[in-house]
Specification:
The chain is an alpha/beta fold and 340 residues long. It has helices at 21-30, 40-46, 60-70, 79-85, 101-108, 126-139, 153-164, 181-196, 294-305, 315-339; strands at residues 12-17, 50-56, 74-76, 91-94, 115-119, 143-146, 170-177, 200-212, 215-223, 229-234, 244-249, 252-257, 262-270, 278-286.
C-alpha cells in the first residue's frame, strides 16, 4: 500500500507515470509564458490540494529534466521501482505511451489510491478497456479518462442547452479529425457521445495512414440513438491537425472550429433581405481555452475524491468511445478485405 500520510488532509500527493509532452513537456517548451497550464504537472502545481512528489520515466535524461523543472523529489525508471521504494502517494497520473496504459493501470490497482487520472485511450482494445474499467469500479477507485472537451465549461453549457431543447431537434452532424481513429478520432466520438448518446457505426467510407500504420484515420457514417446521421470525415495530419464539427439543429447551427477553441452559434431567424424565408444568423462566437480544461479535470478529480462530485468522464465513457472506434475499424476491415 502506498497511500500517503496526508490522512485527514485535503492535500494529495501525486505520482506521474511517463514524462512526455502531456505530462509536462508542453509547458517546459513554453518557458513559463504566463498561459494557463495545459499539462498534468502544470495543472497539479496550479491546484492548491495536489503536489507532485514522484515521477516514473525510463529515459534517465528526460526523467532528470522533468524532476528539475517541476521540482519533483523522487524519480524512478519503472513502476516496480517506485512501488518498492515505499514513496507514498494518493493519486497517479498515467501519461505513458498508449500501449502501456493497461499494464500501468493494473499495477496501480493494489495500491489503494484515492484516484487515477489516465490519458486516452484507456486501452488498445475495447475488451481490455472494459476489464480495467470494471476492475476500478469494483475497487471503488475513481478513474478519470482525459477526453479533455468534457471539462471545457463552454462545451458543458452547450450540452445543457442541447439537453434543454434550446436548439430544437438535431438534424445531423458533420465532424472532422486527423491523426488516427483511436488517437484523435476518439476525441470526436467521445464528444458526440457526450452530447447525444452512444453512436452506432453504419458504414466505413475510406481510410488513410497519417500518423500510425496501426491506427489509420477512417471516414465513416454513424447514427445517434434517435437515428440522426453523423458523418465522420478525415483530414490529413501530415498537412495540419484537424478536429472540427458542425451540428445542425432545427433551431440553428453550431460550429466547433480550431480543435474546439472557437464556437460559432447561428440561430434560426427571418431573413432580412427576402421576406417569407428563414435563415440562420450568427448570434455569438466564443473562444474556449480548450487545452487548459485539464485544470477543470483536476478539480473534478479532487471533488470526486472528496465525494462531492461525479467524474465528467470515466472508465465507462472511455469504453463507449473505444467500442465505437473499434466498430468503425471492423467495418473498414470488412470493406477493405472485400475490395481485395
Amino acid at each position: 500500500m502506498t497511500t500517503s500520510n496526508n490522512a485527514g488532509s485535503d492535500l494529495f500527493d501525486v505520482v506521474i507515470i511517463g514524462c512526455g509532452r502531456i505530462a509536462g513537456g508542453i509547458e517546459e517548451a513554453r518557458l513559463d509564458d504566463g498561459v494557463a497550464p495545459v499539462s498534468h504537472a502544470g495543472a497539479y502545481r496550479a491546484h492548491p490540494n495536489f503536489r507532485v512528489v514522484a515521477c516514473i520515466e525510463p529515459d534517465e535524461k528526460r526523467r532528470q529534466e522533468f524532476m528539475s523543472y517541476w521540482d519533483v523529489p523522487h524519480g524512478f525508471a519503472d513502476l516496480a521501482s517506485f512501488v518498492d521504494s515505499g514513496v507514498q502517494v494518493d493519486v497517479a497520473s498515467v501519461c505513458s505511451p498508449n500501449a502501456f496504459h493497461i499494464e500501468h493501470l493494473k499495477a496501480l490497482l493494489p495500491l489503494e489510491l484515492k484516484g487515477v487520472f489516465c490519458e486516452k485511450p484507456l486501452a488498445e482494445t475495447a475488451k481490455r478497456a472494459v476489464e480495467i474499467a470494471q476492475a476500478y469500479e469494483r475497487a471503488g477507485v475513481p478513474l478519470l479518462v482525459h477526453y479533455l472537451r468534457r471539462w471545457v465549461p463552454e462545451i458543458a453549457t452547450l450540452k445543457q442547452d442541447i439537453d434543454s431543447g434550446a436548439w430544437g431537434d438535431l438534424l445531423n452532424v458533420v465532424a472532422y479529425y486527423s491523426k488516427g481513429l483511436k488517437h484523435n478520432g476518439s476525441h470526436v466520438v467521445d464528444l458526440l457521445t457526450y452530447f447525444f448518446g452512444k453512436l452506432t457505426p453504419l458504414y466505413a467510407l475510406s481510410a488513410l495512414v497519417d500518423h500510425d500504420p496501426n491506427d489509420p484515420s477512417i471516414s465513416a457514417v454513424l447514427k445517434t440513438p434517435d437515428n440522426k446521421m453523423v458523418h465522420l470525415l478525415t483530414g490529413d495530419e501530415r498537412q495540419f491537425q484537424h478536429i472540427e464539427a458542425s451540428f445542425l439543429f432545427t433551431g440553428g447551427r453550431v460550429d466547433m472550429e480550431n480543435l474546439g477553441r472557437t464556437f460559432r452559434f447561428r440561430k434560426r431567424a427571418p431573413d432580412k433581405a427576402i421576406p417569407g424565408i428563414m435563415t440562420i444568423s450568427e448570434t455569438k462566437r466564443v473562444h474556449p481555452d480548450t487545452p487548459a480544461a485539464i485544470n477543470d479535470a483536476v478539480e473534478n478529480l479532487y471533488q470526486c475524491i472528496l465525494g462531492k462530485s461525479e467524474l465528467n468522464g470515466d472508465g465507462a465513457s472511455a469504453v463507449d468511445a473505444l467500442q465505437t472506434c473499434e466498430a468503425i475499424s471492423d467495418l473498414w476491415k470488412v470493406r477493405d478485405g472485400a475490395a481485395h
